Amino acid sequence: MGRYFIEIQYNGTNYHGWQIQENANTVQAEINKALSTFLQEEIMVMGCGRTDTGVHAKEFFAHFDTAKTFENDFLTYKLNCLLPKDISCKNIFNVQDDLHARFSATSRTYEYWITPTKNPFLTEYAYFFPQQLNIHLMNDAAKLLIQQTDFSCFSKSNTDTLTNNCNITFAEWQKTDEKLIFTITADRFLRNMVRAIVGTLLEIGQEKLTKNDLQQIIASKNRSEAGVSVPAHGLYLTKVTYPTF
After folding, report:
1. 42 SS3 class
2. What pLDDT sits at residue 238?
3. Which member of 52, 65, 177, 187 is catalytic?
4. What are the residue ranges spanned by the domains of the chain?
5. Are 97 and 18 spatial neighbours (Cβ–Cβ below 8 Å)?
6. Active site includes 52?
7. What pTM did the predictor assign?
């Protein structure tokens, strides 16, 4: 029995997130079906996280175990033939048996894309937000996130997590010609966390809230104190790191 990592990318528009659900189209279900078809055995992949409905991934890892032998490049090719056009297999490679796609990951990075102008080529991939924003205030407030650990105020309620503590190592807004991009890196993320953070920072950018307000929101540990969650279609998982690669 060997363990393999599969690196994929996907456009999440047509999926109810990563994780398998009854009566819903999910990315995990498509990966399982394609691998099971090729290997002629039931395969259940374990993903590096759970992206929500409509969220995209530029880099996503999953692992599976099989006793079958195959050429990794050939399986990559065959999977791309079997998978839908909005899911791509970039690579398949052998790893040690104890490397786990979810629990061995040391950090994850997300980007949130905002377009300040109406752009037909970004409609499905960035949040159209035409209001004037003070990016300096937003970046100053984002620095607070690195100093905190308990992010209960940004977590969806009734989740099965044992702790709401996360270690954020990077949080910054950058402006490009067409987009405003928020990048955030942490060891783990809570459900809905990034979208709630972005929604709160947008209120700071509009000067409806202050940096001190953000401090109080985090201290409150109350989701209703934070800003609204921005739409899922602007969110991307962009990087997942592991201790061995």
Report:
1. coil
2. 98
3. 52
4. 2-95, 107-241
5. no
6. yes
7. 0.96
